């Protein structure tokens, strides 16, 4: 009886494991492959999200029908009926988000907490969450957004050095404090090259495009780390002395969230065709022009269309269909 009982027990255990695996796979199969999400701080950014949503529905290929979530602050709930109708026609879901009052002293604070909320809400619904800034436009099917199974993050480096830390030089007092407060180890640092000025930096991720597996918890960790930085008196003093540090402290917090959550081999630097910064040289300076849309998958336009050059469309190279589509929508309120 003992050998039979042992075999029976092994059979029961194996059967239970098979059932659990089937349930797990069934749960995964019920998820949508991908959700797009973004945040709008004000009415102008809300207008931008309409263009982003329309671009997804027009050009995103097999992802064109994916859910689109737009997060807005509570004080933006009173939205013009006409704009709401446009969101309804594009099947965009509007969601509200709050941020701690003390965080609002720093730029882009609500975006951090919106990203964390989006990740939490997407975990049971999607295999991948694509978090994008509202000044993004999708021009082709974003195939690289479907991450390989061993990857949990697709990212792009920051556009240019800005307040970043050059890989060839010792970290300054600001970055040394960041590494100390967030317990970032030297061994987790690796080089990345900025697209606009070709500088080699220590990890400094662009917060305007993050392709994440929600289960990894990167964006929620971002919302945990940001308060650690904006509550630190030494960093606050540094931010008061240097406005750029105050503007981009949220993006600095993202560094810790990623490096302390994932190994480098669990991340991928998306190709140059993603997060392509049109007219970046005209706005901030660069080693090259960003004026060709040939093969661009997603573009960013930042603040350019707040005061664009009258002939901006003629300066763009690429498919005439795409340029005409952009011309009809950008620079208009």
Give structural notes.
39% of the residues are buried. Strand 11 (276-277), helix 9 and strand 12 (298-300) form a beta-alpha-beta unit. The chain has a domain at 31-165 and 205-218 and 263-329: Spore Coat Polysaccharide Biosynthesis Protein SpsA, Chain A (Alpha-Beta Complex), CATH 3.90.550. The chain has 11 helices and 12 strands. It has 333 residues and is an alpha/beta fold. The strands form 3 sheets. The chain has a 7-stranded mixed beta sheet with strand order 3-2-1-4-9-6-10, with helices on both faces.
Keywords, separated by commas or semicolons:
333 residues, alpha/beta, Spore Coat Polysaccharide Biosynthesis Protein SpsA, Chain A, three-stranded mixed beta sheet, 11 helices
């Amino acid at each position: 009886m003992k050998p039979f009982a042992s075999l029976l027990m092994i059979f029961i255990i194996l059967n239970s494991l098979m059932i659990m695996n089937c349930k797990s796979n069934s749960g995964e199969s019920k998820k949508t492959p991908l959700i797009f999400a973004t945040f709008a701080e004000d009415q102008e950014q809300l207008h931008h999200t309409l263009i982003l949503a329309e671009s997804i529905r027009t050009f995103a290929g097999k992802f064109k029908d994916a859910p689109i979530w737009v997060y807005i602050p509570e004080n933006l709930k009173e939205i013009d009926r006409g704009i709401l109708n446009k969101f309804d026609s594009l099947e965009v879901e509007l969601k509200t988000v709050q941020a701690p009052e003390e965080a609002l002293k720093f730029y882009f604070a609500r975006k951090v907490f919106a990203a964390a909320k989006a990740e939490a809400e997407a975990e049971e619904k999607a295999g991948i969450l694509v978090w994008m800034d509202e000044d993004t436009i999708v021009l082709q099917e974003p195939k690289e957004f479907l991450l390989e199974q061993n990857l949990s993050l697709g990212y792009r480096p920051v556009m240019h050095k800005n307040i970043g830390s050059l890989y060839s030089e010792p970290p300054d007092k600001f970055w040394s404090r960041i590494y100390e407060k967030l317990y970032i180890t030297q061994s987790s640092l690796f080089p990345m090259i900025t697209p606009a000025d070709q500088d080699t930096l220590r990890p400094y991720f662009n917060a305007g495009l993050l392709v994440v597996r929600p289960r990894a918890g990167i964006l929620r960790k971002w919302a945990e780390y940001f308060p650690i930085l904006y509550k630190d008196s030494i960093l606050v003093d540094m931010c008061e002395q240097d406005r750029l540090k105050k503007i981009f402290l949220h993006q600095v917090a993202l560094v810790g969230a990623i490096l302390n959550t994932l190994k480098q081999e669990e991340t991928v630097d998306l190709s140059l065709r993603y997060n392509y910064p049109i007219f970046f040289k005209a706005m901030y300076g660069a080693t090259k022009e960003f004026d060709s849309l040939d093969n661009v998958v997603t573009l960013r336009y930042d603040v350019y269309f707040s005061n664009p050059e009258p002939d901006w469309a003629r300066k763009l190279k690429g498919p005439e269909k795409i340029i005409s589509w952009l011309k009809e929508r950008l620079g208009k309120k």
